[in-house]
Structure formats: structure tokens, C-alpha cells
Amino acid sequence: MSYTIIKSSVVILLAILGMGSLNGEKQSVDNAVAEHPNQRNIRAGTTFHLEFRQQLENLNGHWRHLDPNLDVLDEQPILRDEVSMIQSHLRLVIEQLESAKIDHLSNPQIANRESHIRALRHYMQIGRFPQNTYAAGRHPVFIDQEGTHCAVGHLIALSGNAELAQRINRQHQLDFLRDIRTSGLAQWQVASGLSLDELALIQPTYISKTLSYPREIQDLIRGDSSSLLEALRKGNRSVHDRCGGKTILHFAAISGNLKLAKYLVEHGANINAVTELGCDKTELTKGGNRAMFTVRWNEPTRVNNDGPRGIGVRGEVFRTKRGRLIADALGDLRGGFEGVSAYELATRRLQSRYALNSRPIFRPGSKSGKPIPAPVDNELDQLEKGRQAVAEYLLSLDELVNDQDDAE
Asked: Which H/E stretch holds residue 303?
């Protein structure tokens, strides 16, 4: 038998046994990547993997000593998107919790642990996390000014210990879990079935961002349109100007300012104009741990890492409930959004991406299924009445809209 025949026989035998040729091995790898698209970008050694690990470790330093199973991520994380990264962090934490040995726990502890893991998964999926409006850089925030709990605070409160969560927040709002000494926490931790190390791993840190608008827009968001109206009357601003990809009418609509909306329409503003992006994703990557977002007139939003250090660095618009709600809905910390009209902004439900409470009118209610009226908040109630008035005014201009030019 010749060498060629022997060689051919061996190749055929290898193929039959599933060992395959080099081409077969390559095809298998390609198929694996096709089945798991994350692996191509997250697998060890790639640029994406290195940056993802760095951001993960910035969220929680305990990852420096762990090897997370990235295969559990069902979608590729969006780097430098805070919500996406925190959700990815929590997915990896849940995998760690579910794969841990728990033979030493009692049956009640195991039951509590399983309940907490389910609650943590739901918390992760909702994607509403505290905002760091307190200190520059990354810090834990137990409960923020809107009442949004961190993951550990959420587990504590949900397990019937809301008062304990509030006491921790009063005493250790910006502290790491290992530094919290509030009475009752140690007892809760033992009963929870979660170790102190696991709770420390759950706890992320939250980045500080500074958002800056032109003075006239900032005043409008906070409820005062006088400086903007004066600039329009003097010709210093035009009804066609944009700020962060939005027209002045967009800002008037979402802010519920009927007087300004009427002035703009009467002076030629296009009520069909839709929002544009304030900046592209490339610009958003320039932020870092002290991200400064400067929203500008008729120019793209500028993002850099020059935000101020110290306490309360989120910007003037975040000093009131009204301002925080409107600024979050405008989305300028995420680069804005496109394709939304003034009428849509006036009627859009205002709901913070992070806050537990939302506006307006009704919240989930009684066992009978009837909605329970939301608690009255004069500041936010006035905002919603103003937005409703603007919406009704714009809706009355339907025929006028049809006669106007296409959206800008």
C-alpha cells in the first residue's frame, strides 16, 4: 500500500471519528462564534474584553480577584453606558451566587437566599439605579434623593426591613458595605443566606456626571422662561435654534410652558420639527469618571472628562424635582434622541430612568384593580398641568400643521 493511500485513509478515518481536518476545526470555531456572538468581542485578549473588564472593575473592585463567566451575558454590554454596565455586572454577580456552594446554610437561609437572587434578577431587569449627585468620581449610593435604592438596599427593603435600609442610608449613604456599622445589618446578613463578601460584590459604585445647559434653557427647565423670551424678542435667539438637537418648542413642550409655546408658534416655529441626536456615540466615550456634558446652541453636545470635583456636581437643573425629571426625560446625558415631535414631548410620560416613582396621575393600585391616585406634589402637579395645556394647544393646530412645511 502506497504512502499516499495510507495518508488518505488516515484523513478519512479522522473525519469519521470527528477529529476533522484543520478546515473542519476552523468551521467548528466559526459555528461556535455564530451561536454565541458575544464570544467574538468579549473573549479574553480582545480590546473589547480588556476595556469591559476595566469598566467592570471600576464598578466594583472585587472583580479584580475574580474570573467572571462572561458566557452568561445574553447580549453584548454597551461600554460607557452606565445602565448597561450595571446590568452586566449584576448578571455576572447572579451567576456567581447561583454557582456558589451553600451546603453550610440552613434551610431558612437557603430559602431567603433564593428569594434574594430572584429579587436581584428582577431589579437588574428593571434597570433603575441610584444617581450619584453627591460626590465626584465613583461612589456607592445607598438610596438617592429620588428614593431609588442600590441593589443591596433594595434587597433589604424588599425583605420587610425598609426602616433598616433608611437607617443605613442616613448613617452610611456613600460608604462601602464593609464600612457600614448600622445596627441590625449583621443580623439581616446572616439571615439572608448571603455572605458579606457576596453582598460586597453586589454593591456597585455610581459615576458622577455634570450636565450643563445654556442659561436660558436651564432657567426654562426650572420653570422660568423670561430670559429666553427676552433673548427671542431682542433677536439674540431664533425660533429655529436648536440646543442638544432639540428646538426651543421641544423644550417648551416638555417643560409645560404654554406662554413660550404660543410665542414660538406665532413667530414661525415649526411644530412638526422632530428632535435630532445631541451628539454621536463616539462623543459619549470621552466622558470618564468625571464626565462633563455641555449642551450647546446649534452645535453638538460636547463631552469630556473635566467635570468638577467635590459635592453636588450634577448641574443646576438637578437641584429641583422638576428639573431632575425633565432633564432625565430629555436624555442629554445619553446623547439625546431623534424623531420626537413637540406634541409627543408634551404628552410623553415623564419617568426617571433611575427613580422608583414616576409621573403623572396614577400608580399601580389596590387589590381590586382600581388605580390609586398618586400623592399630590404641587411642583410636579403644576408641571403636568402645564404640559397638558401645551399639548391641547398644539393639538388645536392640526390643520395649521398640515399646511406647514415638512419637519426640519
From this structure: strand 302-304
